[in-house]
Structures are given as structure tokens and as C-alpha cells.
Amino acid sequence: MATITIGRSPQNTIVVDSSYSTVSSNHATITDNGGTLTLQDHSTNGTYVNGQHVHNQSISIRQGDKITLASTYELPWREVMRYFGGEHATQRYPQTPQTMRDEPRQQPQVAQQININIGGGAAKDEPDAASYRETPQCLGKWNWGAFLLGWIWAVGNGVWWGLLGLIPYVGFIINIILGINGNNSAWEKFSGSADEFDEKQHQWAKAGWIIFVIILIVSFFVGVASAL
User: Fold this and answer.
1) Distance between CA 123 and CA 228 in Å, rounded?
2) Residue 8 burial (CB < 10 Å; 0-12/13-18/19+)?
3) Is residue 146 scored above 60 in pLDDT?
4) Taking a C-beta distance cutoff of 8 angstroms, is the pair 35, 45 a contact?
């Protein structure tokens, strides 16, 4: 059994050009199970196989099927078949449209080794298509929503240790820790996709800054009123 990964992240086997912004960082995997190809979608916007929408599920595919990632990027079969041997390699590749050949394509920076199970031996270092999960872009970065909203953000993201911020005199320190490690802690509790997680944390950060600005404006007018 051999598996390849597809998406915008340079760690994938097939790297999609970053200009296709609707394609997820780790969009899908294709697995060869002894001559049968299976596509597993892991994305936010889904994949179309011969017009059928596939979203966070698997589907059997055959060489020549039209596979479109996120309604924008048509996956070239010649790229897929570079990584599979056996009977698939002897089939005729479909013609690639001229527009596809002219589009810039980012080459993988890291080549992923594909191990093929021969004679019943176990293949090693292959990602499991059923358990594959992409990584959020915000992971390991500063979380403004967690820092500005503190325990409110913690409750909304299931990071219960953030409630320590309610303790007098240590709240600001807890907020700093949430800002540093909030994304990692929240991701462990999150069950959706990486793109959905990135969007959720972006909305939390936006809410935090709006509330912060409102507090500054109110404080200013209260100060002015007090001085009169």
C-alpha cells in the first residue's frame, strides 16, 4: 500500500501552487490498495470527482477521472501516476489541457518517500489516510484573542487552565501565557479542520481588538468628563 499527500504545504508529495488559495494546506491523500486507488478529502472546501462533491470522506477513483480541488485546481493525473507503480503505470495518461501546462507549479521542497508493500511485507513511514490531519498556520504563533480576552477566550476554546486568570494579581501573567501557548492548547481541543481553526482564532483576535479599542475610548471620555 502506498499513499501520497496533496495540498499547498511544501511538505506534501504533490504541492499545489500557493495562488490556489481555496486549496487547503493538506487537502487530500490518495492511497493505492493493491491496484485500487482511494482519494480521502481532508479539506475545508472539498474535492470534486467527476462532478461529485467529496468533503471529509473517501471515494474510489480511476485513472482519467476528473479531480478538482476546491473547485479551482484540476489535479493532473501525470503528477499522480509518478508515484504509483504496477498496472497503473502502464495505463495511458489523459491529455493535459494547454492551460494546465502553462500554469506555474511549485515543486515540492521535501520529497516524501513512497514505500510499496511487496509480497505481504509491511510498508513503513506511510501516512494513514484515515487519521491524517493538517496543521493550522497559526500554530506556535502569538494569539491576540487569548491575550486580550483572557479567561473569556479560554472558556470559549475549552482551555480551562486559563481560568487561573481570574485570580487577583496573576491574571496578566496568565494572559501572557495564553498569548504564547493559546493556539497549541486550543488546537488539542478542536475537532474541525486546520483552516476552520485558523479562521476561528482570527475572529477571536478581531473581537479582542474591538473590545480593547472600545475600552480605551470609554476610558478617555470618562477621564475627560471627570476633569470637567
Assistant:
1) 78
2) buried
3) yes
4) no
Backbone φ and ψ for 6, nearest 5 degrees, come out as -135, 135
Q: Which three cell numbers stand for residue 53?
A: 462533491
* All domains of the chain in start order, with CATH: 2-102 (2.60.200.20), 144-227 (no CATH)
Owner of C-alpha cell 474541525: 192
Q: What is the mean pLDDT of the chain?
A: 81
Q: How confident is the model at residue 172 (pLDDT cuts 50, 70, 90)?
A: very high
> For 151-162, b where at least 16 C-beta lie within 10 A, e where not — what string?
bbbbebbebeeb
Contact indicator for 78, 64 with CB cutoff of 8 Å: no
Task: Measure CA 11 to chain center.
Answer: 12
Instruction: Enumerate residues 6+ apart whose C-beta is below 8 A from 82.
Output: none
H/E stretch holding 152? helix 151-157
Give the cell for residue 197: 481553526
Whether the pTM exceeds 0.90: the reply is no
How far is Cα of residue 69 from the mean position of the Cα atoms in its chain? 14
What is the number of residues in the chain? Answer: 228
- Residue with grid cell 489516510, as numbered in its chain: 129
Whether 60 and 86 have beta carbons less than 8 Å apart is answered as: no
Identity (one letter) of the amino acid at 219?
A: S
